[in-house]
């Protein structure tokens, strides 16, 4: 069944907002930033079976920026991995849905929270698939700020050297990190050149344009070359007063702000 | 121990196709036979221990039992968070192998002195520490780990260690292994973990009428604490010995295990390295004596 990824992304945003509002949790800006990428991956690109989360042939997805977990929990509920009612246990005592992505939730491969862990772990999965002759792919979604972590650059070198063309990394390049802009913290540019120099096939897209995202995911890389997609995004995308603001890396929306955000998304 | 490790690993890998070896650009003269026989299961991750450990966890999540291999603190402290979060928290079958446990690389300086490693691994809830006392215990530990894949740390000495068992012993986590001396209740025990078994045996053999027996505990960790009280209670006194700092080491682990039983902690004497050894440089033997665990 064809999934309307635009509608899926809108639902992800709505669910994510409700979850952080109820739990008084942080990181809504980060979740809104990746909602379109998540919708396109789960709705169109990846081979998954929500009825069998551990299906051997599934593509593997790793959220390295684990703090944006509500977007993933939401898509898992929308696709039927978990019940939508469970989403509202987010942040509750003993809930499997902790405030960073948790492998105790069906459909989640790997828990993160500390940055710089997803890509090395994904490299191991991709290497295992190669060595075992498996066809599935590994997708790792990273933040731009987490590229400060040296472990990512170790993994980038390794993946190119070992010709892991079954590995796809996506950078959520919203250009804002914890205290300030990426540019003012540790400037990443020229980022495309850096990834190219590390031996990856690089493409740049508007991370909120589903056609551009699908085209980039579907594009063939040269044999033996891992792929990286730099997705230019807007932190807080979809809620006007949250966009491009460090504040919404931390602040949970009040009930009034939630109402305003949901109204904007209803009209989107 | 290195040679016993690679020989046993190769034998086990012939039977078990899930065994993989990932090295951090170290192991010259040791790992080549594995690499030649199992090229699809050997990876040199380069000088990049964070990625080495992360990718090992990723491979383990797809069914492999991965051995990461390097020397001293490189496969442990350098990538401590990958071990904590990726391996231990996800309960994956990765065995971190460190060559040069204790002060085996004494002349190479503090960077190469693995004297705080027990402290790192013993505070991880799913981690099993394997600290064999001789080459036969290395083989025993490896067989156990392959049969019981889990997050684990294998601490090896270097090369040329003597053997103190007649055959490969049966090892069980938390269970003391009898090596020499009397077996009766009420005995005094010199309890070693890791390569200090040689020091313990030297003391026993040097004594004309030893009033103690020598035991080794090659497999231990947080989960093995509950088994200790019964074994301590069977002894009059337990003198632990280890080539690790007092703090967070093997003896303090045993003291913690005993602390819930009134009276048992008083039976334990801890012999471990004192902090004077930190930053000193010399042979393993000289540093062990400086640290306070030499012959008596």
UniProtKB/TrEMBL annotation, chain A:
Residues 8-257 form the Transketolase N-terminal domain. Its cofactor is thiamine diphosphate. InterPro entries: THDP-binding, Transketolase_N. The keyword S-adenosyl-L-methionine does not apply. Keywords: Thiamine pyrophosphate. The keyword Ribonucleoprotein does not apply. Signal peptide: none annotated. PANTHER family: TRANSKETOLASE N-TERMINAL SECTION-RELATED (PTHR47514:SF1). Belongs to the transketolase family. This is Transketolase.
From TrEMBL, chain B:
It comes from the Bacteria. SMART domains: Transket_pyr. Pfam families: Transket_pyr (PF02779). It comes from Marinobacter confluentis. This is Transketolase. Residues 1-163 form the Transketolase-like pyrimidine-binding domain. Signal peptide: none annotated. InterPro entries: PDH/Transketolase, THDP-binding, Transketolase-like_Pyr-bd.
